[in-house]
Amino acid sequence: MSKGKWCLILSALIYGIAPMLAKLAYRGGVNGITLTFLRAFLMLPVLAAIMAAKGQSFSLSKKEFANIAALGIIGGALSTIALYLAYDYTATGLATTLHFIYPLIIVIASAMIYREKIAGAKLAAVMLVTVGIFLFVDISNAANILGVVMAVLSGVFYSFYVIYMDHSGLDGMDYMKLTFYMMIIMSFGTLVFGAATDSITISSMTGTGWIFSVIISFLVTIGAIPLFQAGVRYEGAATAGIISALEPVTTIILGAWILNEAMSVAQYFGGAMMIFGIVLTEKYG
Between the CA atoms of 101, 179, 189 and 99, what dihedral angle is there, to the nearest 10 degrees? Predict the structure, then answer.
């Protein structure tokens, strides 16, 4: 297996662990918007220290700043905020399902906008992953139209994140430097939104909330995000989108294993389809 695909798999596994840790953080007075802000903000000193130790320049050209701003605001802050807003208006399972249409959006957009040739095996893989997502996540609860719109938008915004990173040249930047500036923009955007909606709960957080927020920030910001950036550099947007489907598989399997959450027959079948699609990408993508 290639280096890029290993990076994407490890990134998806870390992202898949994060929601289980988030449940523990929520018990400590954290909500989704606060956790998004802290996830981006808490590791900024660590990222700066890593860059300094590597002798990495902190300077940015005007073009690099504009590209990172677009990536951080649209693909980072807006994608996450839209998903958390969707959770407020519709079933979490449905919102998650609609968000994970982004692998299909990435493949279609890459073919239509950038004229990329999509191999038959890769197209079959993304269809398996998409159908598997709908089987894998519980969508039995009623939907609110605003929640559906927000969930779809979150997937569209995240598709932009993956495609733009692949085609803007940012995937060639040092991973820690790119992550550092993205987290600055994402934390600022989330803080502004949280202050405007009075949804920042830092004052009511307990020690448990802080501990798990720090753990999530470290795993995602120092691990998952740079690994994903490396995967996009080596494998491209379409493959990155498909392999990212390991994230919900990891989340639900860990929930069943550690938190004793039940899994239905449809979820087992959907998970198998998604894994088969990812294997197909590895062999022929």
Answer: 10
